[in-house]
Design a protein that fits this description.
It contains five helices and no strands. With 165 residues, it is mainly alpha-helical. The protein has one domain (2-52, 59-136). It is flat. One of its GO terms (cellular component) is membrane.
Length: 165
């Protein structure tokens, strides 16, 4: 039963999802770039381009907002792909090498690979917060507001307890 799980869930579906993810990131990046160029051509044909008038360098016809969107999408997708690669290798090795399991011949290597795979998954979730913080101004303002609310709540609770004593 474990072998069927490894073949279907840990390998076949994972490879399919991995390929779909890479394809989607590539297509999305290309389409965003293409849409930005089209939008830019409409803007420059109807009026003077504000970036060119200000003397700023032209990023292949991309506005800074479009460039940030493309960068953030590619970065989040790449981080996900890189963080899932150890699990993909670990699962494939588990399928191909019979002693690569808990309590088997290569159990110490198995334990190290499991730890690395889990750590990469946790890092993926952690790093995304910082990527969104840097690339999304609305996310940044909401996050700062949330922390401000939490710290104000703690201060008011602390001062209320201090006043009671």
């Amino acid at each position: 039963m474990t072998r069927i799980n490894d073949i279907l869930n840990r390998n076949s579906l994972l490879y399919i999802n991995f390929i779909i993810m890479i394809t989607c990131v590539s297509v999305l990046s290309y389409k965003l770039y293409q849409a930005s160029k089209t939008r830019r051509s409409y803007t420059t044909s109807s009026a003077i381009d504000p970036e060119q008038a200000s003397g700023k360098p032209d990023n292949l016809g991309l506005s800074s907002k479009d460039l940030h969107v493309i960068q953030s999408v590619v970065l989040v997708g790449s981080i996900f792909i890189m963080s899932q690669a150890p699990f993909l290798m670990y699962s494939t090795t588990r399928l191909l090498v019979s002693g690569f399991a808990a309590g088997a011949k290569f159990m110490h290597i198995f334990a190290v690979c499991t730890t690395i795979s889990q750590t990469c998954s946790y890092l993926n979730a952690t790093v995304n917060i910082f990527v969104y913080y840097n690339f999304n101004s609305k996310y940044k303002s909401n996050l700062l507001l949330m922390f401000e609310t939490i710290t104000l709540k703690k201060k008011s609770t602390k001062s209320a307890t201090d006043n009671k004593t």
